[in-house]
Amino acid sequence: MIEHPSGSSSLTLIEAARAMISDTMSEHDAEVALAMAIQRGQLHANIKRWATEQWEGRQLPGNINRLETLIERSDFDAWLKSRGGAA
User: Rounded distance, CA 10 to CA 19, Å?
Assistant: First the structure.
């Protein structure tokens, strides 16, 4: 989790995905679920996108950069709760 000077806490997309891993959800599946929620406007995020030639690893919808896209912890928790997941 990243602590910003303002005191707010954010997760990178990969950190949020790792918090979602379970027996039925892989890290990549969680990343895709988060990226889709961001793309659909269901989850607010400060998005950083890859240029096609910069891509690293498996591609996510919208070329979202999993390492530099930030999600506020409170937004992530609320979205997870709305899906029936534990926050």
Answer: 13
Beta-carbon contacts of 30 under 8 Å, excluding residues fewer than 6 positions away, are 16, 17, 18, 20, 21
Rg (CA), the chain: 12
Say how far apart CA 55 and CA 41 lie, in whole Å. Answer: 23
pLDDT in tens, 38-86: 999 999 999 998 876 666 667 888 889 989 999 999 999 999 999 886 6
Residue range 6-49, pLDDT digits in tens: 455 999 999 999 999 999 999 999 999 999 999 999 999 999 98
Q: Tokens 């997309």 correspond to what residue?
A: 13
Q: What is the pTM of this model?
A: 0.82
- CA dist 2 and 12 (Å) reads 8
- The maximal CA–CA distance of the chain, rounded, in angstroms, is 37
